[in-house]
Structure formats: C-alpha cells, structure tokens
Write a structure and sequence with these properties.
Layout (H helix, E strand, L loop, with lengths): L1 H23 L15 E3 L6 E3 L4 E3 L2 E3 L2 H4 L1
Antiparallel strand pairs: 1-2, 3-4
The structure holds zinc ion (ZN).
Amino acid sequence: MGLIKLIIVVLVIWLGFSLFKKLRKPKNSLDQNPPSGSKMLACSVCDMRIPENEAIIQNGKVYCSKEHLE
Ligand SMILES: [Zn+2]
C-alpha cells in the first residue's frame, strides 16, 4: 500500500511541476530575430559595417552614427 501512495505523491508533484513550468515558460517571440537578408553598409568615416536600415545615408555617403555624419 505504501508504494501506491508514493507513486500518487510523485505523480501529483510531477503534474504540479509540469504545470508550473508551463505557466512560467517565457514567451518565445519569433519576431525578435534580426531581419535576414538585410544589406550591410560600411561607414565612410570608420568603415564599420552596419545594417542598411540603421545606417544614415546623406549625399550618397554612409554613416554609422550622427557623430560621423558631422
Ligand atoms: Zn562611423
């Protein structure tokens, strides 16, 4: 009889633990991945590579930051 009790206790703990894990599971947002296939541009001042959507383009030249734009 003791063994059955033990199995039930273990089962209840396991169920509670799996439920707890399910509730605590962080949301895996797929949209956090960086956009693949985005063009990389080199800054005309420091030659650092930056994605096209983050680059500052002025007068046909590429800049990595506002500091290098001036
Ligand atoms: Zn730069």
